[in-house]
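thought: fold this chain, then report.
action: predict
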Amino acid sequence: MNKTISVLGSTGSIGRQALEVMAALGMRAAALTALLEEQARKFHPRLVVAADPASAADLKLRLRDTDIAVRAGREGLLEAATISGTDTVLTAVVGMVGLEPTLAAIDAGRQIALANKETLVCAGELVMKRASASGAQILPVDSEHSAFFQCLEGNRDKGAVKRMLLTASGGPFFGMTRAQLETVTKQQALRHPNWSMGPKITIDSATLMNKGLEFIEAMHLFGVTPGEITILIHRESVIHSMIEYQDGSVIAQMAEPDMRLPIQYALTYPRRLPSLTKGPDFFSLKPLTFAKPDLETFRCLKLALQAAETGGTACTVLNAANEVAVSSFLEGKCRFLDIERIVGETVSLIAPSEISGLSSVLEADRAAREAAVSCLKREN
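observation:
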């Protein structure tokens, strides 16, 4: 397929699978960020971006036999997001760092394949307003949001939608009590039953914070209120989400739990091409089950739903505190249930405000990170 893609976050789980899809479809890379030398040599983009100046200097030395430009850090990400000759910018970096380059790509009128949920969680109102002004199309990469998007494709009347049914696997600790969660380890939390993902999103799935972040993302992406989204625990991860219409009909998107499918749909939209993903084998499918989420056991999800109701910078604060807490857990500096404690205390400390622009989002993020670190230190 004759298409050129900039991949922001090419060494993460989504980035690596995106490059696999691109290779299978014959797509070109304009820019790759946070990459390996092997990726640069295979896809030969015009620009590569390393995380910091030292890494960039080393990469530039190793690529000295090529004509590939090498940049570093934030400025490099912004350049990669706006490089000329790009059809689509895939934003697959993890965390708040994805916000500014995504906004830069939007302002440049690029089509966005959005895998960085923090962009909409932290600044959804701002991002969607800027996309509307520039005419940039945002296509979801998250499997659940891609499912919503696909289920809505045949619907011309937004008023016909009754509610959006957001599915969740329940993570590795579904059915556990809080007493059992007191002793879970990092290794246990990183064993997701259905999906192969990076460590941060895997921990978020274990706490159910990931579903809360997806809830907020869906609100902004599809312009709905919290009351129009219902979360369902669906352990099999075969139905990736559903739309219920006013007449009682429900349309679901079903597929194997393989991120290469929603990645490909975002990169090839509106076309559907043969993919690396096999369809479900309906003769061997296990029964499909659904359950309500346990908000008292998994309080991160409860905190996220409360932030969604509050709006403004409440979601920015929630996300920043969660990033600090999850990083601390992965580094062995706190326990599993400390994640929800740090997030809850931080949210209670930082009063939410309206999002007046990017500066208000960045300030809320900064203040929340400082508060979260203080909460972590107080416990230790």
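thought: worth noting. The mean pLDDT is 95.
final: tokens above.
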